[in-house]
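Handout, section B. The chain below has 207 residues.
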Amino acid sequence: MARSAAHEGAGWFEARGLAAFRGERLVLEGVSFRLEAGGALLLRGPNGAGKSTLLRVLAGLIPPAAGALLWRGEDALADLSYHARRLAYLGHQDAVKPGLSVAENLAFAASGGGDIDAALAALGLAPLADLPARFLSAGQRRRLALARLPLACAPLWLLDEPGNGLDESSLASLGALSDRHRAAGGMVIAATHHDLPFPGASQLSLT
Protein backbone atom coordinates (compact mmCIF):
# COMPACT_ATOMS: atom_id res chain seq x y z
CA MET A 1 0.00 0.00 0.00
CA ALA A 2 1.33 3.45 -0.90
CA ARG A 3 2.34 5.77 1.91
CA SER A 4 0.06 8.73 2.65
CA ALA A 5 2.08 11.69 3.89
CA ALA A 6 -1.01 13.80 4.41
CA HIS A 7 -2.58 11.41 6.89
CA GLU A 8 0.41 9.96 8.73
CA GLY A 9 0.86 10.78 12.40
CA ALA A 10 3.19 13.72 12.88
CA GLY A 11 5.49 12.24 15.53
CA TRP A 12 8.10 15.00 15.63
CA PHE A 13 9.93 17.39 13.34
CA GLU A 14 13.52 18.35 14.09
CA ALA A 15 16.21 20.65 12.72
CA ARG A 16 19.86 20.09 13.61
CA GLY A 17 22.41 22.78 12.89
CA LEU A 18 20.74 24.12 9.75
CA ALA A 19 22.53 26.72 7.65
CA ALA A 20 21.27 28.41 4.52
CA PHE A 21 22.21 31.05 1.98
CA ARG A 22 20.03 33.73 0.45
CA GLY A 23 21.76 34.58 -2.79
CA GLU A 24 25.45 34.61 -1.83
CA ARG A 25 24.88 35.66 1.76
CA LEU A 26 24.78 33.22 4.67
CA VAL A 27 21.62 34.17 6.56
CA LEU A 28 21.15 31.11 8.77
CA GLU A 29 23.68 29.11 10.73
CA GLY A 30 23.37 26.58 13.54
CA VAL A 31 19.57 26.59 13.66
CA SER A 32 18.21 23.75 15.78
CA PHE A 33 14.79 22.92 17.23
CA ARG A 34 12.53 19.96 17.90
CA LEU A 35 8.76 20.22 17.53
CA GLU A 36 6.49 17.53 18.88
CA ALA A 37 3.02 16.60 17.61
CA GLY A 38 0.54 19.23 18.78
CA GLY A 39 3.26 21.85 19.11
CA ALA A 40 3.75 25.33 17.69
CA LEU A 41 6.94 27.29 17.05
CA LEU A 42 7.11 31.04 16.43
CA LEU A 43 10.08 32.34 14.43
CA ARG A 44 11.07 35.81 15.63
CA GLY A 45 13.61 38.33 14.45
CA PRO A 46 14.06 41.57 12.51
CA ASN A 47 13.53 41.87 8.77
CA GLY A 48 16.34 40.10 6.95
CA ALA A 49 17.09 37.73 9.82
CA GLY A 50 16.21 34.71 7.68
CA LYS A 51 12.71 33.78 8.92
CA SER A 52 11.26 33.34 5.43
CA THR A 53 14.40 31.58 4.25
CA LEU A 54 14.14 29.12 7.13
CA LEU A 55 10.52 28.34 6.27
CA ARG A 56 11.53 27.64 2.69
CA VAL A 57 14.29 25.31 3.87
CA LEU A 58 11.79 23.52 6.13
CA ALA A 59 9.44 23.18 3.15
CA GLY A 60 12.17 21.66 0.99
CA LEU A 61 12.14 24.64 -1.40
CA ILE A 62 15.74 25.64 -0.60
CA PRO A 63 18.42 23.04 0.13
CA PRO A 64 20.22 23.58 3.45
CA ALA A 65 23.88 24.49 3.18
CA ALA A 66 24.59 22.43 6.30
CA GLY A 67 22.77 20.49 8.97
CA ALA A 68 19.89 18.02 8.88
CA LEU A 69 16.10 18.13 8.83
CA LEU A 70 14.43 15.10 10.38
CA TRP A 71 10.90 13.71 10.39
CA ARG A 72 10.43 11.03 13.04
CA GLY A 73 14.20 10.76 13.15
CA GLU A 74 14.63 10.15 9.41
CA ASP A 75 15.89 12.49 6.70
CA ALA A 76 12.86 14.65 5.90
CA LEU A 77 14.29 15.78 2.56
CA ALA A 78 15.22 12.35 1.19
CA ASP A 79 11.98 12.33 -0.84
CA LEU A 80 11.00 15.92 -1.61
CA SER A 81 7.68 15.10 -3.27
CA TYR A 82 6.66 13.03 -0.26
CA HIS A 83 7.75 15.78 2.14
CA ALA A 84 5.67 18.31 0.18
CA ARG A 85 2.54 16.23 0.76
CA ARG A 86 2.90 16.33 4.52
CA LEU A 87 2.98 20.12 4.77
CA ALA A 88 0.83 23.14 3.95
CA TYR A 89 2.88 26.24 3.14
CA LEU A 90 1.54 29.81 3.30
CA GLY A 91 3.92 32.45 1.98
CA HIS A 92 3.67 36.23 1.80
CA GLN A 93 1.60 35.97 -1.37
CA ASP A 94 -1.98 34.79 -0.87
CA ALA A 95 -2.00 32.90 -4.20
CA VAL A 96 -5.72 33.55 -4.66
CA LYS A 97 -7.18 32.92 -8.12
CA PRO A 98 -9.08 36.16 -8.89
CA GLY A 99 -11.32 34.66 -11.57
CA LEU A 100 -12.76 32.06 -9.18
CA SER A 101 -15.25 32.63 -6.40
CA VAL A 102 -14.23 32.24 -2.77
CA ALA A 103 -15.80 28.77 -2.62
CA GLU A 104 -14.25 27.77 -5.96
CA ASN A 105 -10.82 28.80 -4.70
CA LEU A 106 -11.25 26.47 -1.75
CA ALA A 107 -12.61 23.65 -3.92
CA PHE A 108 -9.52 24.00 -6.13
CA ALA A 109 -7.35 23.62 -3.01
CA ALA A 110 -9.27 20.74 -1.45
CA SER A 111 -7.08 17.95 -2.81
CA GLY A 112 -6.88 16.49 0.68
CA GLY A 113 -10.63 15.99 0.82
CA GLY A 114 -11.29 18.58 3.53
CA ASP A 115 -14.64 20.13 4.39
CA ILE A 116 -15.06 23.32 2.32
CA ASP A 117 -18.10 24.56 4.25
CA ALA A 118 -16.21 24.16 7.53
CA ALA A 119 -13.23 26.04 6.08
CA LEU A 120 -15.49 28.90 4.97
CA ALA A 121 -17.11 29.09 8.41
CA ALA A 122 -13.80 28.92 10.27
CA LEU A 123 -12.55 32.17 8.72
CA GLY A 124 -15.92 33.93 8.50
CA LEU A 125 -16.07 33.60 4.72
CA ALA A 126 -19.43 31.84 4.31
CA PRO A 127 -21.29 35.07 3.37
CA LEU A 128 -18.67 35.68 0.65
CA ALA A 129 -18.69 32.15 -0.78
CA ASP A 130 -20.07 33.15 -4.20
CA LEU A 131 -18.13 36.41 -4.52
CA PRO A 132 -15.37 36.48 -7.17
CA ALA A 133 -12.05 36.66 -5.36
CA ARG A 134 -10.97 39.73 -7.32
CA PHE A 135 -13.42 41.78 -5.23
CA LEU A 136 -11.95 40.76 -1.88
CA SER A 137 -10.07 43.17 0.36
CA ALA A 138 -6.50 42.40 1.40
CA GLY A 139 -7.68 41.04 4.75
CA GLN A 140 -10.34 38.89 3.10
CA ARG A 141 -7.78 37.47 0.67
CA ARG A 142 -5.54 36.58 3.61
CA ARG A 143 -8.43 34.83 5.34
CA LEU A 144 -9.13 32.90 2.13
CA ALA A 145 -5.49 31.81 1.98
CA LEU A 146 -5.67 30.66 5.60
CA ALA A 147 -8.90 28.76 4.94
CA ARG A 148 -6.96 26.52 2.52
CA LEU A 149 -4.76 25.17 5.32
CA PRO A 150 -7.12 22.54 6.82
CA LEU A 151 -8.15 21.43 3.32
CA ALA A 152 -4.63 20.15 2.68
CA CYS A 153 -5.05 17.59 5.47
CA ALA A 154 -1.31 17.94 6.12
CA PRO A 155 0.24 17.47 9.58
CA LEU A 156 2.70 20.39 9.30
CA TRP A 157 1.71 24.01 8.63
CA LEU A 158 4.45 26.48 7.66
CA LEU A 159 3.15 30.06 7.85
CA ASP A 160 4.97 33.23 6.79
CA GLU A 161 3.48 36.26 8.58
CA PRO A 162 -0.02 34.72 8.73
CA GLY A 163 -1.37 37.69 10.71
CA ASN A 164 -0.67 40.26 7.98
CA GLY A 165 -3.84 42.19 7.13
CA LEU A 166 -5.96 40.50 9.80
CA ASP A 167 -8.08 42.38 12.33
CA GLU A 168 -8.48 41.23 15.94
CA SER A 169 -11.47 39.00 15.15
CA SER A 170 -9.68 37.31 12.26
CA LEU A 171 -6.58 36.74 14.40
CA ALA A 172 -8.82 34.96 16.91
CA SER A 173 -10.19 32.81 14.08
CA LEU A 174 -6.62 31.94 13.07
CA GLY A 175 -5.91 30.95 16.67
CA ALA A 176 -8.97 28.69 16.77
CA LEU A 177 -7.98 27.10 13.44
CA SER A 178 -4.50 26.40 14.81
CA ASP A 179 -5.92 25.03 18.07
CA ARG A 180 -8.03 22.45 16.22
CA HIS A 181 -5.10 21.43 14.03
CA ARG A 182 -2.79 20.99 17.02
CA ALA A 183 -5.43 19.14 19.05
CA ALA A 184 -5.52 16.55 16.25
CA GLY A 185 -1.73 16.11 16.48
CA GLY A 186 -0.74 18.67 13.86
CA MET A 187 2.19 21.09 14.12
CA VAL A 188 2.51 24.78 13.24
CA ILE A 189 5.64 26.85 12.53
CA ALA A 190 5.03 30.56 11.91
CA ALA A 191 7.35 33.44 11.10
CA THR A 192 5.76 36.49 12.67
CA HIS A 193 6.08 40.03 13.97
CA HIS A 194 2.62 39.69 15.56
CA ASP A 195 1.64 38.18 18.88
CA LEU A 196 -0.24 35.21 17.47
CA PRO A 197 -2.85 33.42 19.61
CA PHE A 198 -0.99 30.09 19.69
CA PRO A 199 -1.06 28.99 23.36
CA GLY A 200 2.07 27.28 24.61
CA ALA A 201 4.05 28.03 21.46
CA SER A 202 7.84 27.87 21.66
CA GLN A 203 9.91 30.70 20.21
CA LEU A 204 13.05 30.69 18.12
CA SER A 205 14.86 34.02 17.75
CA LEU A 206 16.86 34.65 14.59
CA THR A 207 19.32 37.53 14.52
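Note. The beta strands are 12-22, 25-36, 40-44, 66-71, 74-75, 87-90, 156-160, 187-191, 202-205. Compare this with the example in section A.
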